[in-house]
Amino acid sequence: MNQTVIKKVDLEKIKSLRKKANLSLEEMAKLLGYESANGYYYLETGRGKFSAETLAKVSDIFNLKVDDLFFENKIAKMAKETKQAI
């Protein structure tokens, strides 16, 4: 049986990473090539969608794999840890 896996960007994680790095919305926007913070703000709040290129840039900024920016990994990791604990 084939199951389709839907990946969703973990917006809270991206916001948390940005804040931990002491980057303002304006600074993050500039790092990603935006002229103002508005365009980036819409992505971080879910009002817009991250492109694959932008996600690649975000992962580079925080030195992560692109997959680490998605919920699916978080859920899979939790499931694996739960199985190991049992």
- Gap from first CA to last CA: 27 Å
Beta-strand percent range: under 5%
Number of helices: 5
Q: Mean pLDDT across all residues, rounded?
A: 86
Shape-level CATH architecture: Orthogonal Bundle
Shape: globular
- CATH topology tier name: 434 Repressor (Amino-terminal Domain)
CATH homolog superfamily? lambda repressor-like DNA-binding domains
How many strand units? 0
C-alpha Rg, in Å? 15 Å
Task: Describe this structure as you would to a colleague.
This protein has one domain: lambda repressor-like DNA-binding domains (434 Repressor (Amino-terminal Domain)), CATH 1.10.260.40. Helices cover 58% and strands 0% of the residues. It is globular. The chain is built from five helices and no strands. It has 86 residues and is mainly α. Helix 2 crosses helix 3. One of its GO terms (molecular function) is DNA binding. InterPro entries: Cro/C1-type_HTH, Lambda_DNA-bd_dom_sf. Keywords: DNA-binding.
